[in-house]
Design goal:
The chain is mainly alpha-helical. It has a domain at about 60-185: AhpD-like (Up-down Bundle), CATH 1.20.1290.10. It has nine helices and no strands. The longest helix has 24 residues, at about 145-170. The N and C termini lie close together (about 10 Å).
Length: about 200
């Protein structure tokens, strides 16, 4: 049972208000993750700061979204696979077929981006212990750099904060992202609570 509060502008702690107000103004709504994170204004601020830092990385906006979706798939975060699929398609203008392939864990028709997906998922799955692994070799062979590898870790950090928060708080999917709803594949069902 979810007992975590979805804060509004009226109920949020003062430290969270500037971020919630900016989201409401920019998006026309407060994303439910933000509404949950508002309970801990420093966590909400950290999430926003990590996002801003990732945007300043050498990864392209498309690559950033691919990292964020890949982490969310590996973490089985249905909320953020949907949210970042929406962002990728509608804001970053990633090709829809590419987003669909990524969500379905299929080949992306781009060897460099496939190396990015494989490396990102390996970092999450192996908790960073990928030194010497094939995914890291393929990542570098595809033209990515050590800087890019560390920027992937930055994206993993950002999504770990949001994905784990969503798991803890059972964040409901915002109506704005409903068209991109995603369900974790059955092989991940072992980790879901039986009802």
């Amino acid at each position: 049972m979810n007992t975590f509060k979805l804060h509004t502008l009226e109920s949020a702690p003062a430290g969270a208000l500037p971020i919630l107000e900016a989201a409401n103004k920019g998006l026309g709504f407060i994303p439910n993750l933000y509404a949950h994170l508002a309970e801990a204004p420093n966590a909400l601020s950290a999430y926003k700061q990590l996002g801003a830092l990732l945007e300043q990385s050498a990864l392209t906006p498309e690559e950033q979204q691919i990292v964020l979706i890949s982490v969310s798939i590996e973490n089985r975060c249905e909320y953020y696979v949907a949210a970042h699929s929406f962002i990728a398609r509608n804001m970053v203008k990633v090709d829809g077929a590419r987003v669909d392939a990524l969500r379905g864990q299929s080949y992306l028709q781009d060897q460099k981006l496939n190396a990015l997906v494989a490396f990102t998922r390996a970092v999450v799955r192996e908790r960073g212990w990928v030194q010497g692994g094939q995914e890291l070799k393929d990542f570098f062979a595809a033209g990515y750099t050590q800087q890019n590898a560390l920027e992937v870790v930055l994206g993993v950090s950002m999504k770990t904060l949001s994905n784990y928060t969503n798991h803890l708080t059972d964040t409901p999917l915002d109506a704005a992202f409903a068209s991109e709803a995603w369900q974790a594949p059955d092989e991940y069902a072992c980790c879901q609570e039986a009802v």
